[in-house]
Amino acid sequence: QVSELVQFLLVKDQKKIPVKKADMLKNIIREYRDAYWEILNKAGKTLQEVFGLQLVEIDTKRHICILINNLPRAEGQYLCREKEKEKMGLLLVILSFIFMKGNSVKDSALWEFLHLLRVYPGKQHSVFGDVRKLVTEEFVRQKYLETTPIPLTDPPEFKYQWGPRAEKETSKKDVLNFVAKIQGKDPTFWASQYSEAEATP
């Protein structure tokens, strides 16, 4: 059961899909549901020791888990599969933008910002494919980003914030250092972001 669960979690992690306890019980653990926590803990230990991945529960009510990298990170880089690197680069830029703008941005502001980077929603990008889909569906489904509708807007508008996976896989400090590096400034240049980054682990 343990090795089956490890494989199941790794397959889900390829697409960065959060895994529900219900799915683990139904697909893998089945009649061993009494030993659920024991199997999960052993699988978690294997993932950590063999793959450097940490099994983390991001929703304690509905018991939803994700795998995060806990190998030492290169500065401002995610440890990920080659072809994912570019996507993660774009994600890091988006997370930086959200953080620098006070942890929440309207979708229109985000698209304007991406426009400056020559990344256009609705246009096929040679590296990222359908950018609108990548940002609004994939990154949201993978829990890197969260969207909240803004009340009383017509047409409906949304705001973007960091999702729980982003909170676990990177830190505001990493992101601020990344921005500082790009801009060639010291992180202390942004006083309020700097103090917030220092205050959050």
From TrEMBL:
Pfam families: MAGE. Transmembrane segments: none annotated. GO terms for cellular component: nucleus. It comes from the Eukaryota. Residues 1-197 form the MAGE domain. Coiled coil: none annotated. This is NSE3 protein.
